[in-house]
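Notes continue from the previous slide.

Worked example: a multi-chain complex. Inputs as given:
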Amino acid sequence: MQAVDESALADSVRAGDADAFETLIRRETPRLLSVARRILGNDDEAREAVHQGFIAAYRAREQFQGDARLSTWMHRIVVNKALDVLRARQRRPEDAIEDLLPRFRPDGHHQEQFATWPEMESVIDRERLSGTVRDAIASLPESFRLVLLLRDIEELSTDETAEALGTTPNAVKLRLHRARMALRTLLADRLQGAHS
Amino acid sequence: MNCRDLSRFLEEYVAGELPDTVASEFELHISRCGNCDQYLVQYRETIALGRAAAGDPGECPEELVQAIMASLKAAK
């Protein structure tokens, strides 16, 4: 869609035009559903988060700032709706992540020798590789999985992630680092296992 | 800087947020430690694989579009 069309669509959305909202819903729903599914891991809840997100956007339409993109605005709204759904779920105790982090000898050297990963294309096809990565991400403890999703996949900034999760930027950075290290361990096990 | 120290700085190094003096020490260690060099490669690869695994959005479910439009009409 050209910039001028985007600007006209934004004006019509702000004015509450039903056709403009339908255009926005049809354009953004597939991507927003993917985002909500990644966060919630459940199709029914993802649909509800997107549904509630558009209602919230409609009610707040006059607050939409013209210098932002409609897609970015909707993305933030649906991420927050999905996080609301997660918070409403009964919390379960998280598994510890320490077993997935690197270990060091008393002199500060790594305990493990890291083998080179096989060439990805030679391991498994791209679709299976993506499924393997998604499964590994899904198996991370939830507070780490969420930070990794919001920062590395949804590409929110550290500050935006901290605000969405009600924590501090430093906590986000530390948790992201641990989540990446844990995911690296899980992928090493799975990719090398798939290659052997 | 040893391997444990380097591990603590990985996130900031990859984000380009390490102060120059610390980044220099980081890179000096990497140049001498093949194991940490390999770990850094895999840390970056992990981020890239995560992004690539997001997948393409699927179809737009018509019944969801209609349900949202009905809700917006009711919200007027």
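Summary box: Chain B has four helices and no strands. The radius of gyration of chain B is 23 Å.
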